[in-house]
Amino acid sequence: MKNIYSNIIRFNNFSLKKILQNLKSNKILGLPTETVYGLGGNAYSKNAINKIYKLKKRPKSNPLIIHYYDYKSAERDVYTSEEFFKLYRKVCPGPLTFIMKRKLNSKVCSLATSKLKTIAIRFPKNKIIRKILKKLSFPLAMPSANLSRSISPVSALDVFDEFGKKVDLIVDGGKTKIGVESTVIDLTNKIKILRPGFVDRNFISKTLNKRVTNIRKIKYLKSPGMMKTHYSPGIPVKLNQKNISRGCALITFGKSVKNKKHTFNLSRNSNLNEAAKNLYKILRIIKKKGYKKIHVVKIPNFGLGVAINDRLKHAANLK
Ligand code: TXA
Ligand code: MG
Fold first, then answer.
1. N or C: which end of the chain has fewer CB within 10 A?
2. Ligand 1 within 6 A of 126 CB?
3. How far apart (Å, rounded) are the C-alpha atoms in residues 231 and 311?
4. What spacing in Å lies between the alpha carbon of 172 and ligand 2's midpoint?
5. How far apart are the CA of 223 and the centre of ligand 1, in A?
6. Which of 121, 144, 185, 227 to mutate to test the pocket of ligand 1 (most atoms within 8 A of CB)?
7. Is the separation of the CB atoms in 25 and 15 below 8 Å?
8. 227-264 pLDDT, tens per residue?
């Protein structure tokens, strides 16, 4: 029987060679990170970057995150700072993206950064992606591996679900550890969190010994990924609900609720880390089962709960 998933490959020394060859010839690959799967391509190549935008159907005004092995390789493209190193030492490699000033002689394709004077840089923690980055002479532009506005992928099959064979290779690294995208922090001006994630505001504030603000409403396109109807399952989502009507799925958290059949629990033990890990998986399952709408119970708004609520508000078109 023909294997329809033939572009999904395991990671080993043999496939590593093939992965590197593909990236060097400007192919776009589905790759695992500790947060969500990404669509990776050579950040120095206009050809590769064009392919990423086309595949994702992403507006060119929405810049990509550039992924590096370590700060030394990033210093070719951006100016680092004391604040950067304070955070880098504590969390990198890890789920934190820094908006930094771009160096004039940076080779990052200007299309990847929407011609901005800044670059979003990240040092992912997943073992596979680190082995790949270590062997490359260029960084990887890598947005989440989903169609623009759709649900982010947390497994190789999710990437296949989004793109099928349009992506040459999808490297299977199992289920992602964290399940929601990295925290995005702007270090170019007054320090601001543009997208909440695993690394939370308190931690950043304490590490820098500084007040850090959360951006709530984006009046201008500072981080265009925060535009409306992002992370969307394509059906109406209503927050802070307790009950459901016909054709509706209920996403719950903690103690189980009566109507078990149409109920999807993010975490029975009220564990926010587990809930973040399950969020996109559950949204994808509900979408596939053909429900007409989604109700979500109130989710605590601390720790990873802030990131979960942020994604849910986007999905509900409230942000
Ligand atoms: O966890 C993650 O960050 C994943 C994995 C694959 O690394 N990547 C990811 O990329 O979430 P993406 O493209 O889905 O989200 C990138 C976010 C967008 O909201 C984008 O607008 C913002 O980062 N961004 C990128 N460059 C920026 C810049 N120069 N200034 C402000 N925001 C920027
Ligand atoms: Mg995304």
1. N
2. no
3. 6
4. 19
5. 8
6. 144
7. no
8. 556 788 999 999 999 888 889 999 999 986 666 889 99
Task: Indicate which atom in ligand 1 lies nearest the CA of residue 67.
Answer: 7
* The predicted structure's pLDDT at residue 221: 47
Contact, 27 vs 2, CB < 8 A? no
Q: Which atom of ligand 1 is nearest to the CA of 62?
A: 21
Reply yes or no: is the peptide bond before residue 300 cis, omega within 30 of 0: no
| Ligand 1 atom at minimum distance from 146 CA | 14
C-alpha 220 – ligand 1 centre gap (Å): 16
Q: Is the pTM of this model over 0.90?
A: yes
Q: Is 62 in the pocket of ligand 1 (CB under 6 A)?
A: yes
Chain center to CA of 64: 11
CA 29 to ligand 2 center in whole angstroms: 15
Query: pLDDT of 193-207, one tens digit each?
Result: 999 999 999 999 999
- Closest ligand to C-alpha of residue 225 is 1
Task: Write the pLDDT tens digit of every residue in 118-154.
Answer: 999 999 999 999 999 999 999 999 999 999 989 999 9
